[in-house]
Amino acid sequence: MNPSSLKNRHVLLAVTGGIAVYKAAELIRRLRSEEAEVTVVMTESSQRFITPLTFESLSGNKVYTDIFSVPMAHITLPESADLFVIAPATANIIGKLASGIADDMVALSFLAFRGPVIFAPAMNWRMYEHPVLQRNIKTLRDLGCQEVEPEEGELACGEYGVGRMAEAGRIIEAVKGCLTKKDLAGLKVLVVAGPTREYIDPVRFISNRSSGKMGYALAGVALRRGADVTLVSGPVSVEPPLGARVVRVETSDEMLEAVKKNLGGVDVLLMAAAVADFVPDDYSPVKREKEGGFTLKLRPSPDIVKAVSGIRKRPFIVGFSAETGPNIAKAKKKLGEKGMDFIVFNDVTLEGAGFDTDTNKISVIDEDGVADYPLMSKEGCAEIIFDHYLRHSR
Ligand code: C5P
Q1: pLDDT average, residue stretch 3-28
Q2: Taking the domain 188-393, which CATH number applies?
Q3: Dihedral sign of CA atoms 95, 100, 101, 102 in order
Q4: Ligand 1 pocket: which of 279, 306, 338, 341 to mutate (most atoms <8 Å of CB)?
Q5: Which residues line ligand 1 (CB under 6 A)?
Q6: Rg of the Cα atoms in the chain
Q7: Kind of pairing, strands 298-300 and 278-280?
Q8: Which one of 206, 232, 275, 343 would you pick to mutate in the ligand 1 pocket, going by the greatest count of ligand atoms within 8 A of its CB?
């Protein structure tokens, strides 16, 4: 099973009373779409903003609001949960939990729960900055609870500052991080992602359709599974995962230099970048005139994998082979020629695979043979790639 899968994991979601309550609805929807089981407990004041019925409909489960209506629910619910998430977490609940007050369903469930706790504060920026609140957050953190820090921006009160509840995506990432086995802990992973740009003149370049999504998924999954991650990235529009050290590059020469510079102590190199294979031979330092056109002469770009696989103390190397057709033989050839430990093949002409999609259909090829996988999310592909790595390295 995918180690970061939320399938059948039981999340006990505590909703407390702030305007950010509406964001909890989106969070439940996202958790459900990842097949997690969600049960909601609400404080009194949160029900002023939104009714339990909304959360009941979204979660498909009864919502618990009152400590007396279902006796012992505050004990039985936490017992069956894998994770306790408080989102939004008001200053009030943070203070209560930090000092052990237990006078509602949320606070009681917190005390009865044994397992990972995540809380996502949401409040006015001055409240968030207040030393008392910060002291209470520290108390919760010291107890092992994980804060998903609020974001900076326009606040519900009309002011600007740090206090907006983290977006659902960040909370889901924290949830997955908590529930994932850290089987890559202690490993240094270098992911190289995205396209490169090779300049013709100061305003024009040649490049390719790579979105960087596969490489960024590899970096995210490696972080979640406990690795230390450096991400060398060509120009892309996707956000890097929180916690990765990001080195931005543009050209294949810069990418090669960045890989060499960051190779010290690396255990695994995942070369998911789509290096432009050609570099203009005659770069013009001034913008070329369009009149009359011109012939562009290209030379091959430096081969980064080859450069790394040739060194004496080299890391484990995973390469990628994006082909236009079911050309597995070509990928096999690259595996040997470039000195990789295994290569991930994909046919970019298939529906849902390759450039700028969130899904991919991969085959993993090593000396022993070919393992084919169905179409799945790039995150799922990344999990499979690291599982292969772990099998190889044992
Ligand atoms: O030959 P091809 O470009 O298809 O090889 C693909 C693999 O080699 C990928 O892992 C890619 O990142 C890597 N590569 C490289 N340097 C290049 C071209 C590709 O490291 N100049």
Answers
A1: 92
A2: 3.40.50.10300
A3: positive
A4: 338
A5: 252, 271, 273, 275, 277, 301-305, 319-321, 334, 338
A6: 25
A7: antiparallel
A8: 275
Residue 5: predicted pLDDT: 79
For the chain, the structural domain boundaries read 10-178, 188-393
Each residue's pLDDT tens digit, 164-195: 999 999 999 999 999 999 999 999 999 999 99
Annotated active-site residue 157? The verdict is yes
Closest ligand 1 atom, residue 320 Cα: 10
- Closest among 88, 92, 90 to 101, alpha carbons compared: 92
The domain defined by 10-178 folds into Rossmann fold (3.40.50)
Instruction: Report the Cα 336 to chain-centroid distance in Å.
Output: 31
Q: Whose CA is nearest to atom 9 of ligand 1?
A: 320
Helix (H) or strand (E) holding 203: none
Structure confidence by residue, pLDDT tens digits, 21-72? 999 999 999 999 999 999 999 999 999 999 999 999 999 999 999 988 888 8
Atom of ligand 1 nearest to the CA of 318: 10
Q: Residue 126 pairs with which residues in a beta bridge? A: none
Atom of ligand 1 nearest to the CA of 273: 12
The mean pLDDT of 346-353, rounded to a whole number, is 91
Ligand 1 centroid–CA 277 distance in Å is: 8
- Number of the ligand 1 atom closest to the C-alpha atom of 301: 21
Name the 3-class secondary structure at 6. coil
Res 309 pLDDT > 60: yes
What is the per-residue pLDDT for 3?
64
Q: Which two tokens stand for residue 207?
A: 């490049």
